[in-house]
């Protein structure tokens, strides 16, 4: 179990006409266990605030195809318009630095503080700092990595998603993946789609924002997990066989095309060989290679033709040699001697 206790968004910004006047902006939202509702007029920052809940948990890919700070609104990282209550004028303020913090609690009551930068001079958006609570004081933070290999590994120190899963008491199972006999961990980002429905991505599907990560049928996987159901092994076997069939069809088409190209370069072709294996009716052991342009002459007959031509050539050669006169032989001997000299 995982509960938010508090979310803080901190922004330091300056007005365009007063770059030296840096002021503090942001929101501090305290949350209770149960239903919490964020209410406000349009363009008042509800979506921006909601995006910070996902950014601090490394789940920003559920909001946007982009990752890291690219998924956040401009007001958190670039600029925003703010009305000065003393003058009543609206001015554009430019973000100098910003970050988000959240205090979260698990089922056993343990609390930790998460910190993730949005904009600063040395930002590393692939890191989240975590502080433990000790005697009502936050300890020195440790950095955890995310959006990198093994970030879901629950046995590796400082893997953020692995830490978050352990903290929330979530045991990530292994599930089948596409085009492989291997299995993959059910990523926490995929599982998180169970508790996030975003209107801006449409209501056509409750899991419109799900990230599959090459997992086979990810929507079914997270429902099975939520309902403590075992993976349908028979169905998965069927799906893997289907994928193998599709791969075999692709391989067949590729190999047949290569074979036909090679034969065509030598004026040969294979009769009754189909590019689509599903249309292949003739047994491949009975296929014949034929010489193009000889009315269906197969390769054996073509070889016989070539052998006959060679034999005829040798016979003509013998007849020519037998008809040579002494003068012819003398001229040939002279030519061969001169040829040896010239060749040297």
UniProtKB/TrEMBL annotation:
Domain of life (superkingdom): Bacteria
InterPro entries in the cross-refs: P-loop_NTPase
Gene3D superfamilies assigned: P-loop containing nucleotide triphosphate hydrolases
The protein's name: Rad50/SbcC-type AAA domain-containing protein
Gene source species: Segatella copri
């Amino acid at each position: 179990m995982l509960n938010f206790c508090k979310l803080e968004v901190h922004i330091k910004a300056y007005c365009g006409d007063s770059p030296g006047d840096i002021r503090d902006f942001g929101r501090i939202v305290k949350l209770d266990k149960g239903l919490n509702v964020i209410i406000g007029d349009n363009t008042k920052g509800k979506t921006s605030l909601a995006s910070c809940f996902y950014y601090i948990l490394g789940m920003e890919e559920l909001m946007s195809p982009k990752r890291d700070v690219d998924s956040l609104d401009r007001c958190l990282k670039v600029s925003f318009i703010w009305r000065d209550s003393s003058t009543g004028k609206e001015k554009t303020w430019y973000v100098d630095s910003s970050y988000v913090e959240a205090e979260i609690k698990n089922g056993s009551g343990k609390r930790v503080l998460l910190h993730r930068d949005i904009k600063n001079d040395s930002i590393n958006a692939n890191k989240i700092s975590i502080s433990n609570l000790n005697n009502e004081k936050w300890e020195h933070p440790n950095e955890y990595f995310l959006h990198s290999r093994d970030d879901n590994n629950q046995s590796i120190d400082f893997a953020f998603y692995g830490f978050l899963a352990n903290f929330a008491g979530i045991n990530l199972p292994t599930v089948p993946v596409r085009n492989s006999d291997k299995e993959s961990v059910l990523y926490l980002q995929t599982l998180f789609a169970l508790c996030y429905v975003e209107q801006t991505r449409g209501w056509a599907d409750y899991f419109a924002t799900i990230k599959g990560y090459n997992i086979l049928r990810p929507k079914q996987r997270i429902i099975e997990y939520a309902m403590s159901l075992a993976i349908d092994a028979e169905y998965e076997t069927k799906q893997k066989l289907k994928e193998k069939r599709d791969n075999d069809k692709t391989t067949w088409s590729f190999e047949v095309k290569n074979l036909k190209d090679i034969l065509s370069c030598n004026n040969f072709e294979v009769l009754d060989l189909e590019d689509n294996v599903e249309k292949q009716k003739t047994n491949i052991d009975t296929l014949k290679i034929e010489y193009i342009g000889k009315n269906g002459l197969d390769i054996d007959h073509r070889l016989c033709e070539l052998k006959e031509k060679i034999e005829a050539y040798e016979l003509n050669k013998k007849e020519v040699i037998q008809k040579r006169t002494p003068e012819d032989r003398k001229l040939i001997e002279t030519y061969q001697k001169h040829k040896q000299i010239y060749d040297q």
